[in-house]
Amino acid sequence: MTTSPPRADTGSGITAVRSGLALADPLCGDPDASAPTPDFSQLFQQAPCGYLLTDDDGTITSVNDTFLAWTGHQRHHLLGTQLHALMPIGDRILYTTHCMPALSIGGAVAEIAIEVIVADGQRRAALLSAARTPATDGHPAQVRVIIFSAHERRRYERELIAARRRAEESEARRASAEADLHHLAWHDTLTGLLNRAGLTAHLDSLGEHRPAAVRGVADACPPVPSPGTAAHPTANGPLGVLFIDLDHFKAVNDSLGHAAGDQLLTVVAARLQAGVRAEATVARLSGDEFVVIDALANAAQAAALAERLLEALNAPLVLEGLEVVVSASIGAAVACSDQDTPERLVRHADIAMYRAKAAGRNGWAVHDPTTGDPSAGRLRLLGELRHGIEAGQLRLHYQPRINLSSNQIEGVEALVRWQHPTAGLLPPAAFIDVAEDSGLVRELGDWVLNEAIAQAVQWLTAGHTGAPVTMAVNLSARQLGDPRLIDRVAAVLGRHGLPPQLLVLEITETALMHDPDTVLDTLRALKALGVSLAVDDFGTGYSSFTYLKRFPVDELKIDRSFVAGLGTDTSDSAIVASCINLAHAIGLHAVAEGVETSTQRTALLKLGCDLAQGYHWSPGLPAEDLTSWLTRLSAD
Questions:
Q1: Average pLDDT over residues 231-251
Q2: Weakest-pLDDT range from 202-216, 401-415, 530-544, 595-609
Q3: What is the mean pLDDT of residues 510-537?
Q4: Which residues pair with 130 in a beta bridge?
Q5: To the nearest 10°, the Cα dihedral for 300, 304, 307, 310?
Q6: DSSP secondary structure of 437-501
Q7: Residue 21 contacts residue 108 (beta carbons within 8 Å)
Q8: Which pLDDT tens digit goes with each residue over 62-91?
Q9: Residues 6 or more apart from 493 whose CB is under 8 A from it?
Q10: Has this prediction a pTM greater than 0.90?
């Protein structure tokens, strides 16, 4: 008998169980037994419906506790009596003249409506189903009867329908929220353009779908024209990229305020979109950097497009009552061979943009493949960084992570700095890319991990009041791909004696999705060590939600670019709320970065965010300064 999921018996009646008599019952271990076997006795007695056994003439041979509780009859009164004696005369005739012959001939009776006379003489509506097991060697025929309350059945069906409706509505809301979050994750909330993550996905798609016949031809890259040279578009070519950086944008922000800066960026985005073909792609990478991707056959077409966009951008506009003229530096690159992947073209266009800035700004430059990449500066920086690591020039600063509910310090994040002998204290943005590209980031990461864990143990041993509970350390994409990573982490934890649960390893969303299947194995191995894992810069990448649910992570860290707009930008508030809700929906803690104001803190607290960090509490501090900060905090 197929059944719908049973409800627990509350004692007020019998839960409805749908019957169709392919009996999946507690006697299935011994279908010929005349009474419940010991193995199934408890299941028989506590079945969520009345369950009786009779012989062919309807004499009751066994009855379960559920039926007794529902009817109020005593077991010894029922055993040996006729089943139809529990029915009023009409149902009794129906059972003896219709059901019993049907059982003898067909072996089953489908669900029929009857009334059952209970112990106090009242009648209760019920539904009866029965199946007959023929006699076998040494075992008489047996009829198995299921009786349950019609009232409970109807109530259960109503609840089941309502539950299904709620589940369908919940799924629709989840799907809609996921689609919204995908859109928000791939688009810039200020301008509506693709953001860095959306551009990366678009470039990946271009790389996969561009046919070989148009990836590069011998005459696709004629000599680079000079600025001012007439250049007219020819037939559509393989691919071209323009990298656009606004000149002196910081001065607008500093003098007119961030609202004026945002207005300027919105105007620039609109002018760029109006200045390109409908089929072209425009993206805002970050700050005042934009990228245009179009089908450009050669450098001349790229130069013509750059000239046209500069002319559009140079048109005056009014900000805060002042007329402002926008200027920009544009770098362009065009695919010349199969080696020119979309990502490589963006790098070449970026390099060309710096050449345009060096030439006096408000101009353009096209990447010349015959000159090679001007990488001497990066090589020099790489050499200095390698020497800096060996010479002990790296420093760690620690930023508190605050529990928003208690306003108490929960831990710290270790942030690397480089004390450059001539340039002073450099933030990671000044050297991490070079370290990542060269592979030096593994050596740098090992140093950070060792120093951070040593400091955590020092605080733990000293027993400072309010000392950090956890130490968060960033892992780069290259470190995540290092097959020796697990051994390295285990070795550092063992060497210093830090309990692994006090270490939080932060991995950027982009690094997680680089090779998610391989990364998943690495994350599981790290979790096996006992450490916690966090997804860093969440919302800036393009996570697959399927993978996100599978990753054994503990925290989602919401990127500071979204936190900055809390209280002032409804789109940013929506993104932050979605990120927090998503984190909680899959059982993770939500952590906000870059909290600078009490307004942002209050908004995060109302949204249910768990942890936060930022200048509102403290910037990253050297260990000794953080110790003093903690001392002052505990004194207050």
A1: 70
A2: 202-216
A3: 88
A4: 109, 145
A5: -120
A6: HHTTHHHHHHHHHHHHHHHHHHHHHHT-TT--SEEEEEE-HHHHT-TTHHHHHHHHHHHHT--GG
A7: yes
A8: 999 999 999 999 999 999 999 999 999 999
A9: 453, 500, 503, 529, 531
A10: no
- Among candidate residues 535, 460, 458, 457, the one with its CA nearest the CA of residue 494: 457
What pairing do the DSSP bridges indicate for beta strands 142-149 and 123-133? antiparallel
Range 423-430 contact pairs with CB under 8 angstroms and sequence separation of 24 or more:
425/395
Q: Answer yes or no: are the C-beta atoms of 532 and 499 closer than 8 Å.
A: no
Quote the crossing angle between the two packed helices 516-529 and 485-496, to the nearest 10°.
20
Give, for 289, the enclosing helix (H) or strand (E): strand 289-294
Pairing of strands 408-420, 470-475: parallel
Taking the C-alpha atoms of residue 102 and residue 107, their distance in angstroms, rounded to an integer, is: 7
User: For the segment 468-520, what is each residue's pLDDT rounded down to a tens digit?
Assistant: 689 999 998 889 888 899 999 999 999 999 999 999 999 987 788 767 778 89
- Buried-exposed string 208-225: b where 16+ CB fall within 10 A, e elsewhere: eebeeeebbeeebbeebb
Largest separation between any pair of C-alpha atoms in the chain: 110
Beta-carbon contacts of residue 31 (< 8 Å; ≥ 6 apart): 133
Report yes or no: 59 and 167 within 8 Å, Cβ to Cβ: no
Q: What is the DSSP string of 219-283?
A: TSS-PPPPTT------S--S-EEEEEEETTHHHHHHHH-HHHHHHHHHHHHHHHHHTS-TTSEEE
Q: How far is the CA of 568 from the CAs of 466, 539, 603, in angstroms? A: 33, 19, 11
Q: How confident is the model at residue 415 (pLDDT cuts 50, 70, 90)?
A: very high
What are the chain's domains?
1-186 (3.30.450.20), 196-374 (3.30.70.270), 397-414+442-635 (3.20.20.450)
> Beta-strand (E) ranges in 496-541?
503-508, 532-538
Strand partners of residue 591: 557, 611
Nearest to 109 by CA among 152, 58, 156: 58
What's the whole-number average pLDDT of the chain?
A: 83
Closest CA to 213 of 237, 189, 245: 237
Which amino acid, one-letter code, is at 468? P
Residue type for position 356:
A
Structure tokens belonging to residue 55: 């012989």
